[in-house]
Amino acid sequence: MAQFEEVSQKSKLHPKPEGLALQYGTAGFRTDAKHLDHIMFRMGLLATLRSKKTKSTIGVMVTASHNPEEDNGVKLIDPMGEMVTAVWEGYATQLANTEQDSLLKELKDIIEKEDIDMSEPASIYVGKDTRPSGASLSRAVLDGVSSLGGKTHDYGLVTTPQLHYMVCCCNTHGCYGSPTVEGYYQKLSQAFLQLTQNKRLLVDGANGIGALKMREMEPFLRSKLQVVLSNDSSSGKLNHMCGADYVKVQQKAPQGMNMGVGECCCSFDGDADRIVYYYTDSKGCFHLLDGDKIATLISTYLKELLTQAGLNLQIAVVQTAYANGSSTRYLEDVMKVAVCCTKTGVKHLHHAAQEYDIGVYFEANGHGTVLFSKAAQKQIQELVKDPNTNDERKRAVKLLESTINLINQTVGDAISDMLVIETVLAIRGMSVQDWHAIYTDLPNRQLKVTVSDRRVIDTTDAERRAVTPEGLQDAIDSLVKKYKTARSFVRPSGTEDVVRVYAEADTQVHMIIMLIIYLNIFN
Ligand code: 16G
Ligand code: ZN
Predict the structure, then answer these.
(1) Is ipTM beyond 0.95?
(2) Residue 396 — left, alpha, or beta (φ > 0 → left; ψ -120 to 50 → alpha)?
(3) Is the C-beta atom of 364 inside 6 A of ligand 1?
(4) Do residues 21 and 114 both lie within one domain?
(5) Domains contained in the chain, number
């Protein structure tokens, strides 16, 4: 077919290394950048099909988030800014792994299965983070799109959440905002400026795109937030000894940050969709405020506003198995907020959060956002306009409205989350120390273990229990029984060829003993 002639020609410029098989994992494809050229071309093809199928703009983000600088990756963004569906993830894996000579056949199979009208136009938004490999890999995506006649808009260097935002703006015809980087800064800063007072904040940009975009955004914040940037990609290596993942997993401050005692600091990850906060006290002790602390702060704030506004909306917090037991207990027992646990990976949390009027979701690693249902947004907007609303209710409901504008509802967004957190702290008159004191984390650690085949471990109950191999869960159960409030689980990683082990217990010593016993189980 003449239609596929160009695909056939151009695919030769992006040949697949024979035998190489990769999988569309938790957050798309992610591996050494050397192996990704053909994947990018093919994801350009697939995004074009998805665009024709949905009659909407689709996003393609070239990033490997918190992975080392040598890696890269790609993920597709669906029309409302969400992750693509599981069925299309399956197509992505099939298309990526088919050998060169059967590429057209595979493509036609998808077209047939999905009954795609190839005469529909296609529109694809493309973005990339700061990795050196990003330029050529995003060109491969553009090549894939154009070989199927799709139109592209290349945003160049953007954070992952910025691209999600653009896609959503485009497909909602401007209702969500204007699909430009400037439109993004304007929307967030307008909401922020209404809300807050002056504050100084130290930001670790992970030597990545978040640092670059923070600099761009600064003038919009009109000194209300004085951002002191470090690891701002001028010379340092992306994610190396810095960034949100490093700080969370190592439980220590990033290198290259000049922290004064008690000063409020935060770290972004390599594509700026995660954030964690921290400070050191006068004794030099490091204190982390992770995704669980963020979820607690935000949900407490929203719940208070709902009460003051007299709105009867259901608020829930969505967590994963990694959520610290103390946070779950605090939310359920003290805050009386519903808590739900899902599998790791943003798509699972996002999906669960959509079930509530207000769904606050955060992974402990700092990835998260707040979703407001359409009905909840409508109620809030109506109450703002209602002339009979008294002053106290009006103030609360206006704050709710501003929070909706400040939050990036398409996906977790370090910049947007940072502005929400700063706003909540300012309005409630809280310091980072007050926030930290809301509850005390149980000592916890995660380790990664290399095994010959991580797929031997299968889990259930939102990854909190192992079904296979036989005997593993029994061993965990007898370990956990020994200590107060202990909790532990093992799961295969969705992004690396390793198994992750997590343990928490009442004391540091008990937690470490658990981990040592664990390592013996695996060796
Ligand atoms: C990906 C996920 C992140 C999750 C992590 C777990 C997205 C956008 N990102 O980075 O949410 O926490 O994977 O990795 O979904 P793991 O399976 O290797 O532990
Ligand atoms: Zn990320």
Answers:
(1) yes
(2) alpha
(3) no
(4) yes
(5) 4
| Residue of 163, 495, 499, 502 to mutate, ligand 1, most atoms within 8 A of C-beta | 495
Using CA atoms of 148, 154, 160, 163 in order, give the dihedral in degrees to the nearest 10.
-90
The reply to whether 82 falls in a domain is yes
Do residue 345 and residue 385 come from a single domain? yes
Please say whether the beta carbons of 295 and 361 come within 8 A. Answer: yes
In a domain, 40, yes or no: yes
Number of C-alpha atoms within 13 angstroms, CB side, residue 253? Answer: 22
Residue 219 lies in a domain: yes
Same domain assignment for residues 363 and 329: yes
Q: What is the pLDDT of residues 225-282, one digit of tens each?
A: 999 999 997 779 999 999 999 999 999 999 999 999 999 999 999 999 999 999 999 9
> How far apart (Å, rounded) are the C-alpha atoms in residues 172 and 166?
10
Give CA separation, 405 vs 191, 272, 387, 412, in Å.
6, 19, 22, 14
> Is residue 128 a contact partner of residue 162, using CB atoms and an 8 Å limit?
no
Q: Is 65 a catalytic residue?
A: yes
Instruction: List, for residues 310-361, the tens digit of each pLDDT value.
Output: 999 999 999 999 999 999 999 999 999 999 999 999 999 999 999 999 999 9
Q: What is the pTM of this model?
A: 0.95
Q: Which atom of ligand 1 is least distant from the CA of 365?
A: 12
Say if residue 320 is in the same domain as residue 304. Answer: yes
Structural domain of 227: 196-289
| Domain identity same for 120 and 151 | yes
Does one domain contain both 318 and 459? no
What is the per-residue pLDDT across 176-228, written as a single tens digit (0 to 9) for each?
A: 999 999 999 999 998 888 777 788 999 999 999 999 999 999 999 988 999 99
Annotated catalytic residue: which of 11, 51, 65, 230? 65
Q: Please indicate, yes or no, if residue 99 is contained in any of the structural domains.
A: yes
Asked whether residue 134 falls in the same domain as residue 269, the answer is no
Beta strand ranges found along 304-354 (DSSP E): 315-320, 338-342
